[in-house]
Automatic annotation (TrEMBL):
Organism: Actinophytocola oryzae
InterPro entries: DUF6457
Pfam families for this protein: DUF6457
Domain DUF6457: 2-75
Top-level taxonomic group: Bacteria
Name of the molecule in the record: DUF6457 domain-containing protein
Length: 83
């Protein structure tokens, strides 16, 4: 098991989350797109806001799509996240 997968498993266990429900590749792509279009700190905030939205019942993919829309609107570029 690679380091990220092990960390995800351990962190999920600590937080009482099923690690199988976390799409780490989607989250990483979204954070990378935000970092490219905005700034490093915005990437951390985007991931946090995604977690808050999902915690409040939003579909993870839909919430990430809304953030990707915002990135595209602000930067005028297409997000890799949509690939």
């Amino acid at each position: 098991m690679d380091g990220l997968a092990e960390w995800l498993r351990a962190a999920s266990a600590r937080l009482g989350i099923d690690a199988g429900q976390v799409d780490s590749a989607e989250i990483i792509r979204l954070a990378r797109d935000v970092r490219r279009a905005e700034s490093g700190p915005a990437a951390f905030m985007a991931v946090y806001l995604l977690g808050v939205a999902v915690g409040r019942g939003a579909d993870p993919h839909d919430a990430a799509a809304h953030l990707a829309d915002l990135i595209e609107e602000r930067s005028g570029t297409t997000c890799d996240w949509r690939d």
